[in-house]
Amino acid sequence: MTPTRNETMSPTRTKATWKPGVFDEPVPFFRCPACHSVLAGIDGGTGPCLTGGGRRPVAELPYAPAPTAPHCCGTPMERLPELSPDDTAASLELSYDVVGGFDTNALRVSWSVKQAGCTPRWFALKTFTGLQLKYVVPGKLPPVVFALADEDAYAYCDENPCLSCTFHCKRGFVLYTYVEETGLVAYPVHCEAVSH
User: Fold this and answer.
1) Check: CATH 2.20.25.420 for 5-188?
2) Mean pLDDT of the chain
3) How far is CA 18 from the centre of its chain?
4) Cβ-based neighbours of 72, under 8 Å, separated by 6 or more
């Protein structure tokens, strides 16, 4: 018996026929000034919704800071400001590539620590449909790989690795990196200049 097209496709492969739209709202992260606990604001109290019309509506995910800062250790937590990779280049170098083509789409993250105490504690990836988080356990060597599925796996082509062409199919993703000594680094995916 010959498998049908759907039976031969990876279960992580997207069925979307156009690139999903994504809301630009950043994920808020809060840190306790006393114990250094970190919380992510993943739901502002309203559910996700679609805005815009036509074939490419934008998913507005409910990332929102709490109306008042969360408390920990008896004090309000501070919202972590977003640093750029350029702000931390002297202590930590970050890079990523999109790999896997249509069927095993993933974002692979590498890093190089240039200053003692600047090892990433965790990475979080904001995608079209939500947020993934991975801790860097002691002794973990790069890379960290975020597997993508459904709308997050949308790709214009099957290049492996991604050629970062003009379509920038992961534009809207943001890679967050937390380094206790430095803070929160926000690395927008596919915002590099297009080469001609």
Assistant:
1) no
2) 87
3) 20
4) 32, 34, 35, 37, 39
Instruction: Report the amino acid identity of residue 121.
Output: R
The CA-based angle 52-176-136, given to 5 degrees, is 140
pLDDT digits (tens, 9 = 90+) for 65-74: 767 789 999 9
Reference 125, options 190, 49, 51; nearest CA is 190
**Chain CA centroid to CA 127, Å:** 5
4 — pLDDT class (breaks 50, 70, 90):
low
- Torsion angle in degrees (nearest 10) through CA of 43, 124, 145, 130: 20
β-bridge pairing 21-22 and 58-60: parallel
- If 0-12 CB within 10 Å is exposed, 13-18 middle and 19+ buried, where does residue 83 land? middle
